[in-house]
């Protein structure tokens, strides 16, 4: 039996059950949950990094977005609030559309 030991989407146990397979799972406490959300975020970003094409890349970005939604909720916020913070940062500091790569800055 493969061992996963990772956070999974809410309907995964139901899907496994419908396939007729046996599994074990548990419910995380808040501290474990936030740690596993962080781990899952790194996992999804890594999968995005190795995406073979645009379709797979977009699927992985959707997974990253789901992690962001869950993290926002855990911190008592919403994705919409994070989006507003993002927009303010773009106004103040810009985005990443111009592809600027900073090499060095002279020290005083």
From TrEMBL:
Q: Which InterPro entries match?
A: MSMEG_1276-like_NTP-PPase_dom
- What are the protein's UniProt keywords? Hydrolase
* SUPFAM superfamilies from the UniProt entry: all-alpha NTP pyrophosphatases
CDD domains linked: NTP-PPase_COG4997
Domain of life of the native organism: Bacteria
UniProt GO MF annotations = hydrolase activity
Put simply, this protein is called Phosphoribosyl-ATP pyrophosphohydrolase
Q: Which organism is it from?
A: Anaerobacillus arseniciselenatis
Taxon lineage: Bacteria, Bacillati, Bacillota, Bacilli, Bacillales
């Amino acid at each position: 039996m493969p061992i996963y030991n990772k956070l999974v989407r809410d309907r995964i146990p139901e899907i496994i059950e419908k396939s007729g397979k046996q599994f074990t799972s548990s419910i995380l406490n808040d501290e474990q949950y936030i740690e596993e959300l962080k781990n899952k975020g790194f996992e999804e970003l890594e999968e995005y990094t190795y995406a073979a094409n645009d379709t797979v890349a977009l699927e992985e970005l959707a997974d990253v977005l789901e992690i962001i939604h869950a993290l926002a909720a855990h911190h008592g916020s919403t994705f919409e609030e994070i989006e507003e913070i993002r927009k303010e940062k773009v106004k103040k500091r810009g985005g990443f559309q111009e592809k600027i790569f900073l090499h060095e800055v002279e020290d005083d």
